[in-house]
Amino acid sequence: MAKGLPEAFGQQHIRPVEEYPRRLLSALRKTAPSGVDDPTVVVLTPVCSTAPTSNTRYWPG
């Protein structure tokens, strides 16, 4: 968004979020029970499944 609309974000102090999915996955994997080497991580979010702009995403690890 900031690249597409630089005038809208020029005066804002917005931190980048491109690392967020990787960092979240890493943090969640660390919470796996001991002995689980390759845990499956699922994030459930409250979203209306009938919304035309559903936020359903798949982040392969």
Summarize the structure in short.
The protein is mainly alpha-helical and 61 residues long. It is built from two helices and no strands.
Descriptive report:
This protein has 61 residues and is mostly helical. The protein has one domain (1-56). The chain has helices at 6-9, 20-29. It is elongated and about 50 Å long. The two termini are 25 Å apart. 0% of the residues are buried. The model has no long low-confidence stretch (mean pLDDT 79).
Fold blueprint:
Layout: H1 6-9, H2 20-29
For the structure shown, list the relevant keywords.
61 residues; mainly alpha
User: Could you describe the largest sheet, including whether it forms a barrel?
Assistant: none
Beginning-to-end CA distance, first to last residue: 25 Å
Output the helix-strand order.
Answer: HH
Rounded to an integer in angstroms, the radius of gyration calculated over CA atoms is 16 Å
Mean pLDDT: 79
Number of domains: 1
User: Share of helix among residues?
Assistant: 10-25%
